[in-house]
Automatic annotation (TrEMBL):
This is Cys-tRNA(Pro)/Cys-tRNA(Cys) deacylase YbaK. Gene3D superfamilies: YbaK/aminoacyl-tRNA synthetase-associated domain. InterPro entries: YbaK/aa-tRNA-synt-asso_dom_sf (IPR036754), YbaK/aa-tRNA-synth-assoc-dom (IPR007214). Its EC number is 4.2.-.-. Keywords: Lyase. It comes from the Bacteria. It comes from Engelhardtia mirabilis. Residues 24-153 form the YbaK/aminoacyl-tRNA synthetase-associated domain. GO terms for molecular function: aminoacyl-tRNA deacylase activity; lyase activity.
Length: 163
């Protein structure tokens, strides 16, 4: 396979990174952490969500699509996500929505591989304490290792406390 667009983006931005090819059979964040020999909280899953913000007088408000970068060590708490993002509610996109909205296949969804501005990008604040994090390179079984500060800068992520 050729070089993923996410790698081209990091090279263009001058970001130090390592591409790890572990194979598409590695499906979960926990399995990826094990394959890479790293802590699960350093492997960030990219979770596609929809946030709903409160409208005037309890009316439905605006909706926003979001990519949430969350450590693989724990499940994402949607109530905490909504509260941290300032939304009334948060819901997970189903597989079809996630693939349609991002243009990527499940297992390869990455904030580094979607066009900028289409999603609100949120990253779990705890991930910023790591010296290196691992995120999908935009195709199943390919993982990028980089500094969290570089990741935040390149994808324009907002840090939120999900703890």
């Amino acid at each position: 396979m050729g070089k993923p667009n996410s790698v081209r983006l990091l090279e263009r931005e001058g970001v130090d990174h390592v591409l790890h090819e572990v194979g598409p059979e590695v499906k979960s964040g926990q399995a990826m952490a094990q394959a890479l020999g790293v802590k699960p909280e350093w492997v960030l899953r990219t979770i596609v969500c929809e946030l709903e913000f409160a409208g005037p007088a309890g009316a439905p408000g605006r909706r926003a699509k979001a990519l949430v970068l969350h450590g693989s060590a724990a499940e994402l708490d949607l109530k905490r996500l909504a509260r941290a993002a300032g939304a009334a509610r948060a819901r997970l996109a189903d597989r079809g929505e996630a693939e349609r909205w991002t243009g990527l296949v499940r297992g390869g969804i990455s904030a580094l591989a979607v066009p900028p501005g289409r999603f609100e990008v949120l990253i779990e604040a705890a991930a910023l304490a790591a010296s290196r994090v691992f995120v999908s390179a935009g195709r199943p079984g390919a993982e990028l290792e980089l500094a969290p500060a570089d990741l935040v800068r390149v994808i324009g992520a907002r840090s939120i406390d999900l703890g």
